[in-house]
Amino acid sequence: MQKAARRSQSAARPPGRPREFDMDTALDRAVRVFRERGYHATSIGDLTAAMRLATGSVYKAFRDKHAVFLAAFERYTTLRQEQTHSAAARGANGREQIRNVLLSYVERSQGIEGRRGCLVVGSAVELSALDPVVGARVNAQLKTNESFIAGLIRKGQADGSIPRHVAADDTARLMICITQGMRVVGKARLPLDGMRLVAVAMKLLA
């Protein structure tokens, strides 16, 4: 995934002398701005200030704000996917792994992290209907997340921790609705009783 990101980033800029900044660090800073402000409310000036780069450096590396956003989106989804997989890996069986994934969403939907919001959810609301490129990436990421959870459900059914009658695909779709809803609640700064919500969600696997 990182190799693909580097290829897409290198393709976004013309050949020339090597960069004098760390791409991942710069993109992490751009991600934070887009998460907090959204796409349309973020200017190139906001990005250059956050990324600590000159305007010319940003344009050389990315061409325009849209290209910065796409690179930031890819960086964000790559890191979030790694975090989700890491949370799941701490479970001893499929059921525990799904619970750990849900708890990881609770953690990231509260406090400062929750108020910054999810770039996937924000992009789905703000851009998907009008920007087919972003819309395709949002849909692909949601499908990836859904497939991961469905795989954990099937793993749980194989190891005996989840009953066979549970519909893996339908339940995974519902859990995606729950996890993305958590991010919306966190962004809106509404109270989130995460542990109670996870306990209710886990009843889907009964």
From TrEMBL:
InterPro entries: DNA-bd_HTH_TetR-type_CS, Homeodomain-like_sf, HTH_TetR, Tet_transcr_reg_TetR-rel_C_sf, TetR_C. Residues 1-22 are annotated as: Disordered. It comes from the Bacteria. PROSITE patterns: HTH_TETR_1, HTH_TETR_2. Residues 43-62 bind DNA. Keywords: DNA-binding, Transcription, Transcription regulation. Residues 20-80 form the HTH tetR-type domain. PANTHER family: TRANSCRIPTIONAL REGULATORY PROTEIN. This is TetR/AcrR family transcriptional regulator. It comes from Bradyrhizobium zhanjiangense.
